[in-house]
Design brief:
The protein has seven helices and no strands. By secondary structure, the chain is mainly α.
C-alpha cells in the first residue's frame, strides 16, 4: 500500500479508469453479439440501429483512450462486414440467434419498504422441541368442503369502553376525597 498521499489518489484514479475501460470493452462485446444475432435472424432495422450505436461507442472509447484508435477502427470495419452479411437460413443458427437476442425475463426485486419484518417467535420449551411433532391426516368430505365455501356470518364489532387517564404529575392512587381538607386535623 502506498504511503504518499499523491500515490493514494493516483491508485483511486487508476481504479476508476480501469472500471470505465472495462465498461466500454464489455458493452462493445455485447453490441457485437446483438448485431450478429440481428443479422442472422434477418432483422435489418434492429441490425442497423445496433451498428450505429456500436460505431458511436467505439468512437467515444477511442476519443477517451479506452481503446486504441486503430483497434476502434478495426472493430468498426468488422461491424460493417457483419452488417453486410446475408441472413442465415438454417434453423439451428436462427434458433440460437433468437435465443441470444431475446431479453432475459428477470423477476423484479421486491421493494424493501413493502416488506414487513417477520414477527419473532417465542422460544420453544425444550421438552416440546425434543418431541417429534406428528400431525394427523384429515380427509375432507364433500359436505365439509361446501361448508368452507359458504360465506361466514360477520361478527359485530364491539367498542371497548374509554378509560380516562390521570395527569402525569398526579399520584397513582389519587382520589377526590384526598383533596378534601382533613377534619381531624389539629383543632
Amino acid at each position: 500500500m502506498a504511503n504518499i498521499k499523491q500515490q493514494k489518489k493516483r491508485i483511486g484514479t487508476a481504479q476508476r479508469q480501469r472500471l470505465e475501460n472495462l465498461r466500454y470493452r464489455s458493452t462493445v462485446k455485447t453490441l457485437f453479439n446483438k448485431l450478429q444475432a440481428a443479422v442472422d435472424t434477418g432483422e435489418r432495422e434492429v441490425a442497423e440501429k445496433t451498428h450505429k450505436e456500436l460505431v458511436s461507442l467505439l468512437d467515444r472509447a477511442a476519443s477517451r483512450s479506452s481503446l486504441h484508435r486503430n483497434t476502434a477502427s478495426r472493430r468498426k470495419a468488422r461491424a460493417a462486414r457483419i452488417l453486410l452479411q446475408e441472413a442465415k437460413t438454417d434453423a439451428t443458427t436462427i434458433r440460437k440467434a433468437k435465443k441470444k437476442a431475446a431479453p432475459v425475463a428477470r423477476k423484479p426485486k421486491a421493494d424493501a419498504a413493502a416488506k414487513k419484518p417477520a414477527a419473532k417467535k417465542a422460544p420453544a420449551k425444550k421438552a416440546e422441541a425434543d418431541a417429534p411433532v406428528e400431525e394427523p391426516v384429515v380427509e375432507e368430505t364433500p359436505e365439509a368442503k361446501a361448508a368452507d365455501e359458504t360465506p361466514a356470518e360477520e361478527t359485530p364489532v364491539v367498542a371497548e369502553p374509554v378509560v380516562e387517564e390521570t395527569p402525569d404529575d398526579a399520584p397513582a392512587d389519587h382520589t377526590p376525597e384526598a383533596d378534601a381538607p382533613a377534619e381531624d386535623a389539629k383543632d
